[in-house]
Design brief:
Two copies of one chain form a homodimer.
Chain A lengths: L5 H23 L5 E6 L4 E9 L4 E14 L2 H7 L5 E13 L6 E11 L4 E10 L5 H16 L5 H12 L1 E2 L4 E2 L3 E8 L7 H23 L9 H21 L1 H8 L4 H4 L6 E3 L9 H9 L8
Antiparallel strand pairs in A: 1-2, 2-3, 3-4, 4-5, 5-6, 6-9, 7-8
Helix pairs in contact in A: 1-5, 3-5
Chain lengths: 298, 298
């Protein structure tokens, strides 16, 4: 059995980044990822990979990082712990499609440990369609439920609800999209070992590609017009609002002097704001109606 | 002498909104403001006025509000005070120009009081050019300095520095623009009465139009091309980042269930993000070089 050291976790994450980038390049068929290697001032670094102006992906990033240093005070205070060093590694993905019919997708899986022995896993996948299509949301959630159910039948309901609560744009009273799964601070308990959690986190990482392939299938070939693009830009504005106002990961990264360009790769290529925008057709109305918590997509 | 009651302050602010909107319509020459009247769930309300697709202003808002209710816990905690009611009134302006040569401008003046007798004024004006032109920044700061100097020679240096520190995009290590003046919690002291502060706040409100007319003069007629517009959209992205990540007023408004559409009227009509954007010409480089604190524009 593989030893679950931080090095092994980071290496697996790196390999996942490689394989996801390869598959996305094939799927896109036009653009290639460009890589920026960077170093963290305190220790470690990352590989930021970005793709743009593709046939499928207008702007996207697939980032790997493994950084270390003194644990930020915010974390120590929250946990009420004395000074300790930390190590954090993860893979983060956000893909903004060119075609407004295709959803935005986000995935993150991460591992965190401290020199005092504390460790946890976190992560999630969620989908943000510009136009919500029930069948596609259903199918997306089925991929996630199947991945969760292989490990624990309580995971999908719990982590689906967590995603609904997390990916919520409070000041708009709407969810970011149709949700997915979100989990954090998974550590050893009476019933779950580090092996169990690591197997689950790897499963989520491996679910990204099939879930995304399904999410874009057929939609990427739909015709779209200027009105669709305008709506996409309005919805991207909401994505910006969530990421900059509410997303704890973005906030934490910016607060702790993370690499700004890697953190903000999640932002869309173009976003619009219009004062008091009102939906102009039934599809837009239906989308707004479906941006709610606690919809059972299964 | 006029009685400085909250009603009188709010009425003066309303009149200022009227006169600024009238002058801006004349200055724009094409578009007119549309008004939304709204009510605050706890008490009071506002008049949001927005203008779009003008010959000068692509998207802008001039908002008045006067709201009341139980003081938000955040303020009471910060001041270590027991429960009290509050009253807050103000005028807020953000204007995004069509022409990339014309700067974005922002002004806010506000008055806050509580049923326990605590009160203060706050406000500021600042300029965010997409291309920084030294002579224009100099001239803008001269308007502000002249306004400040009429009241106290210590105001301009103090409030100019406050603006540099406040309008700072920490995660980009750059100022939002060329600054201006910013002040908060002006209340009575040994040397300053409520009359003194109110006279100063009115002066700032009345400085907005002449300072803006000067800031747009000549520039509004400059030719611009797609490269200028692209750069404007990148810079507008930074404006979004400041407002959503750092601006305390925006944060406070969203946290306390303020009217989202009125708060976010500050966001630009269109903004772009490009991974690791690098300046493509000397003008862009010069602008980035001048987005620093502590430049003496006088």
């Amino acid at each position: 059995m593989e030893d679950i050291t931080k090095e092994n976790i980071a290496n697996w994450f790196k390999d996942l980044q490689d394989s996801i980038c390869n598959t996305l390049e094939e799927l896109d068929g036009k653009s290639k990822f460009l890589e920026d290697k960077w170093e963290h001032p305190e220790g470690g670094g990352g590989r930021s990979r970005v793709i743009k102006n593709g046939s499928l992906i207008e702007k996207g990033g697939v980032n790997f990082s493994a950084v270390s240093g003194p644990t930020p005070d915010k974390i120590l205070q929250a946990l009420n712990l004395p000074q300790a060093d930390f190590f954090a590694t993860g893979v983060s993905i956000v893909l903004h499609p060119e075609n407004p019919w295709v959803p935005i997708i986000h995935m993150n899986i991460r591992y965190f440990e401290m020199s005092n022995g504390v460790w946890w896993f976190g992560g999630g996948i969620d989908l943000t369609p510009h136009y919500v299509i029930k069948e596609k949301a259903h199918s997306f959630h089925q991929y996630l439920k199947a991945a969760c159910d292989k490990h624990d039948s309580s995971f999908y309901p719990k982590f689906k609800k967590w995603a609904d609560d997390y990916f919520f744009v409070k000041h708009r009273n709407e969810t970011r999209g149709v949700g997915g799964v979100f989990f954090d601070r998974l550590t050893n308990t009476e019933h779950k070992s580090k092996e169990d959690h690591w197997a689950f986190v790897k499963e989520i990482g491996q679910t990204f590609i099939p879930a995304y392939e399904d999410a874009v299938a057929e939609l990427r070939n739909r015709e779209w017009n200027k009105a669709d693009k305008d709506w996409q830009k309005i919805r991207r504005g909401r994505y910006v609002e969530f990421n900059l106002v509410h997303d704890k990961g973005t906030k934490f990264g910016l607060d702790t002097n993370g690499r700004t360009e890697s953190i903000l790769m999640s932002l869309p290529p173009e976003a619009n704001w219009e004062y008091d925008y009102q939906p102009i057709n039934d599809l837009q109305k239906k989308t707004l109606y479906l941006l709610k918590k606690d919809i059972d997509w299964i």
